[in-house]
Write a structure and sequence with these properties.
- By secondary structure, this protein is mostly helical.
- The chain contains eight helices and four strands.
- A two-stranded antiparallel sheet has the order 1-2. Strands 3-4 form a two-stranded antiparallel sheet.
- Strand 1 and strand 2 form a beta hairpin.
- The longest helix has 82 residues.
Length: 238
Amino acid sequence: MTSPHRANAKTTQVCCICHKPFGLRHLRSVDHLRPSIIKMLEEQEGALPDHAMICEGDLSKLRRKHVEQLLQDERGELSALDRRVLNDLSSDVSTVATVDPEVVQPNTFGVRAADAVAAFGGSWTFIILFASVLVIWMAINVIGLFKQPFDPYPFILLNLVLSCVAAMQAPIIMMSQKRQEEKDRLRSENDYMINLRAELEIRQLHEKIDHQMAQQWQRLAELQQIQIDLLESEAGKK
C-alpha cells in the first residue's frame, strides 16, 4: 500500500530555483525549455539535477531576464517603453490592452473654443469671410458711404484690428496643436510597444519551433537506432 508521504511526493516537486514545493501543474520541466534559457539557468544556479523542475513564477522572471539581455545587446540601454513591454511579456498580459489611451482633456469651454477656432481658422470659409470683411471695410472708407470715414486711408484701425486678431488667434491654434501633438506622440509610442511585443513573440516562437524540431530529430534518430538494433538482432538469430 502506498503511503500518504509517497503519494504526496508524486503530486508535488521542488522548484530548482526557489526550492519551494509546488503542484505538478504549476511546474515546468527544465529539459523542455529552450537551450538559451537552460544555459542562463545553469549560469545562475550551477549544475542542475536530472529531471529538474521550475515553477511558473521563476520561469517568467528567467524569460524576462533573457529577453532583457537580448534587447540590451541589440539596443543598449532600455527605455521605459521597452521595460513596460517586458513586464507585459513576463506577466503574459496583452500589450494592446495596457497602452495609454488618447490624451483626455477636461471638456471645458477653453478646450472646446481652442478646437473650434483652430478648425475654423484653417478652413476656406474663414479665408473667404475674412477677405470679404477686408474688402467691405476698405470699400466703405474709400468710396465714402458715410460723411466722415471712420478709418480713412491708410486704414490704421484696420491694421490694429488685424494685429489683434493674429495675436489672439495664434496662441489659441497653438494650444489645439499641442493637444494633437500629444495624441500623436502617444499613438506612436503605442505602435512602437505593439511592434516590439510582436517582434519578441515571433522570436520566442522561432526558438520554440527550432527546439521542438531538434527534439523530434533526436527522437527519430533514437527510433532509427532501435530499429537497426532489432534488425541486427534478428539477423544474428538467423
